[in-house]
Sequence to fold (494 residues):
Amino acid sequence: MKIELDFLSVLAQWPLLAKGVAWTLALTAFSAVLGGLVGVACAWARAYGAKPLAYAVASYVELIRNTPFIVQLFFIFFGLPAAGVKLTPEIASIIAMVMNLGAYATEIVRAGLDATPRGQMDAAKAIGLNRLQMFRLVVLPPALAKVWPAMVSQIIIVMLGSAVCGQISTEELSYAANLIQSRNFRAFESFIIAGAIYLLLAVGVRKLLTWVGPRFFFGSFGAQR
Amino acid sequence: MKRSTPTLNLVRLLLAATGALALTFSAAGQAQTALDDIMKNKEIKIGIPTDFPPYGFVGADLAPKGLDVDMANYIAGKLGVKIELVVVTSANRIPYLQTKKADLVISTLGKNPEREKVIDFTAAYSPFFQAVFGPKNIVVKGPADLVGKSVGVTRGAIEDMELTKIAPSGVDIKRFEDNNVTVSAFVSGQTTLLATGASVAGNMMARNPNLSAEYKFVLKDSPNFIGVAKGEDKLRLKVNEIIAVAKAAGDLDKMAQKWLGRPAGDLPN
Fold:
């Protein structure tokens, strides 16, 4: 079988692809920042919070980690309007991604917190730090340093998972690829190009986050490993 | 050379039987006796769908209902004969005509050259169309009224192509993966309007009367024709006569208005 590839007819639609890339990156940026914060807060609650709070967080984590992302997304977009909450596709996508990443990040950060040596916390207490200071200055930075590679991988997974958001008409990269191939029937080329762009994005985002982590989140702890 | 096996014999037998059947059908096709038989037996067999609302579906009382069913009863009434409704599907409606299991097929049949090779068509009896639908309290008369509103449509469908062609800039077209998701988006209020086929919209409106959705304006027309077995010209011309009278009397418009929410309009002959 001979296939004639016509990449130009897909690349001619570059404004659509560029818009798709922009949305994919925007969704990823929002979910990484907010999801990361949710993850740290929930990890703290699970490790040091009051019992009811720890249980509530545990339920959230299990609920999200044991249901498919697309079901969560459809619930937010199609289900919530029945309760009077109407969201645009973009907001619904961001909320779904933040909730999803938040749950996974909780477990990743918690693993880092658990790995903090007991003695280090005793030392922090001894020099008179309060609980918040202890968490922020003594426990969290080395914990983040330990789990940063896992965290970066999870962010990449969520970015690739954002392809599903096209289903509710968020105009991200897969949506663009789908739209282009439904117009010119160049499905093979569209998805090869979309795949290549995702690959570049994933590599780029991984490099960026690996660079950002030690400089902004956990300083010299990263270098100790 | 190998001796023929039992399997091979069976295959030969089947081939011979198929050939004989094909001969029978083509012979029957020449006869042009359908109308005479109908009048003699005082009964007409008409194929209708039951899986395609609002054209043909099963009502709460388990009886077939819809525009196609009304049309079938109408024709039987005008012929003055009893009717036997034969349930057909999209896949078997043409074979049913070819094998005389139905004298007519009234089942949202569109006319195309491939089909015209195997069956004949009467004049059109009802419209099938892709259109924009929306709530009664929103005024939408044409493409210009779409500006500033969100319209849900299934990506890559005919209505997507048509809508994209005519929509002015400033229309928020939301494209979804398939008809179910597109309809869900409209029903849950995520899109203000819905661009889809008459059948999908009819189904949606029947199930969600509280939305008070209605037909707004047409995107593309592709009318329905009644199918007749190839060569049955006497029956075909008789049905054409009935359709012409129904059209002039406004009965076709009434049926379309009742089931589709718009008049039949100018149907091709």
